[in-house]
Amino acid sequence: MDFLARAAELDAADPLAAHRNAFLDPGPASLVAYFDGNSLGRPLQATVDRLSAFVREEWGGRLIRGWDERWLDLPLTLGDRIGAAALGAAPGQTVVADSTTVLLYKLARAAVDAAVLSSGGTRDEIVLDTDNFPTDRYILEGIAGERGLTLRWVEVDTAEGVTPDLVADAVSERTALAVFSHVAYRSGWLADGPQITRIVHDAGALVLWDLCHSVGSVPVELDAWDVDLAVGCTYKYLNGGPGSPALAYVAARHQAALQQPIWGWLGRRDAFTMGPGYEAADGIRGFLSGTPPILGMVALETYADLLESVGIDAIRAKSLALTDFALEFIDAELAPLGVSVTSPRDHASRGGHVTVKRAGFREVTAALWEQGVIPDYRDPDAIRIGLAPLSTSFAEVATGLAALRDAVRGAGAGDSDGVGGPDLGDGSADAVGSPVTGLTP
């Protein structure tokens, strides 16, 4: 198959194609294909403009008055926007603050403390899986150590992920909290959120979902699924920028009973009295701690505008089309070279990225980065192809995967040192940094 011609057809028919022009273009000398949108999303041109305006007008113009006029409420108002657009969450349940690690600690610690107290100490286990993201595992190991709890590990296939049957076998009357990733960071396995939530609830426990690889890519319905708690980052598919603040969801029914453990001034009732003692603010505000990272939230607001305009269902449809096309290329061009797919092929079980595996991929990744083709590497021997739907074209997928194919073959097309551009299968080879027909990174 001429994959570049096929990509051109798909780009021409893509209803979201015009949105690629909204992203900052670093130029072909810097970027040929970006396959790391599941680690760090690309900035919008509007983000550049909005941050500049914010520095001049809000920060520089309003100075300290900005806190009273808008900034103090931004964690809640922005949380509500993301909750409505991407999480299926009614207002008053989502907040933007801190980092994913800090929010995960807050919510998990609050949940296990409440469960242990209400059960008289009989609920003394945290259920988690062996392939969950390292931060999740480390945080829960720390909480278990602090509170004298036991970790109940769910052994999972790293090419797949957590399934309802595995969860049903792990939870019991001793479970205080279960914590899973909705989309597995290695394989892209998409867990059955509603069914797993029901299974945990049937055992009398709470569930906390890590949405880092879901939010902004895969539709999530936290209210409809009856989820208790969730956390997620905003620098991947929400394009908030490096280290942008995370988000937390706490179902309204739990907000009065759960007390988060990091008592900062901004989470206190009537924070500006600066009085003695701590009394948590009502509602989701009580899950705040310190001063909000406003600059990161301003960047995040820009992408929230685009997300609301396009809609998460349209984004998911483009995501699946991109990963389907990537799988076509991999099966035809990379599988004969010993590259295997370790991601689900079924739409119902696949998130927003595809993972491929072959010995030597660490070195291959380094070579691709030198060419301006940017996937990411994960031990052991795996490359993730993370395709951000609004900023990625089908031509970009074809070009980048052709570069991967050529690197696996051991040399770039037309270059003895392996640094040349990929052979696109149309009788030509593009040098590093040269424009590729139909490619809008």
Automatic annotation (TrEMBL):
**Gene giving rise to this polypeptide:** kynU
**Any GO MF annotation of the entry:** kynureninase activity
Q: What is this protein called?
A: Kynureninase
Species name: Nostocoides japonicum T1-X7
Q: Which PANTHER family does this entry report, sorted A to Z?
A: KYNURENINASE
Q: Tell me if Secreted is a UniProt keyword of this record.
A: no
Region span, Disordered: 414-441
* Enzyme Commission number(s): 3.7.1.3
Annotated GO biological process:
anthranilate metabolic process; L-kynurenine catabolic process; L-tryptophan catabolic process to kynurenine; NAD+ biosynthetic process
Q: Which reaction does it catalyse?
A: L-kynurenine + H2O = anthranilate + L-alanine + H(+); 3-hydroxy-L-kynurenine + H2O = 3-hydroxyanthranilate + L-alanine + H(+)
Instruction: List the GO cellular component terms.
Output: cytoplasm
Question: What is the annotated quaternary arrangement, including any partners?
Answer: Homodimer.
Which InterPro entries did the record assign? Kynureninase, PyrdxlP-dep_Trfase, PyrdxlP-dep_Trfase_major, PyrdxlP-dep_Trfase_small
Family to which the UniProt record says this protein belongs: Belongs to the kynureninase family.
Record-linked SUPFAM superfamilies: PLP-dependent transferases
Gly residues composition bias: which ranges?
A: 414-424
What is the recorded function of this protein according to its Swiss-Prot or TrEMBL entry?
A: Catalyzes the cleavage of L-kynurenine (L-Kyn) and L-3-hydroxykynurenine (L-3OHKyn) into anthranilic acid (AA) and 3-hydroxyanthranilic acid (3-OHAA), respectively.
Provide the cofactor list for this protein. pyridoxal 5'-phosphate
**The entry's keywords:** Hydrolase, Pyridine nucleotide biosynthesis, Pyridoxal phosphate
Instruction: Give the pathway.
Output: Amino-acid degradation; L-kynurenine degradation; L-alanine and anthranilate from L-kynurenine: step 1/1; Cofactor biosynthesis; NAD(+) biosynthesis; quinolinate from L-kynurenine: step 2/3
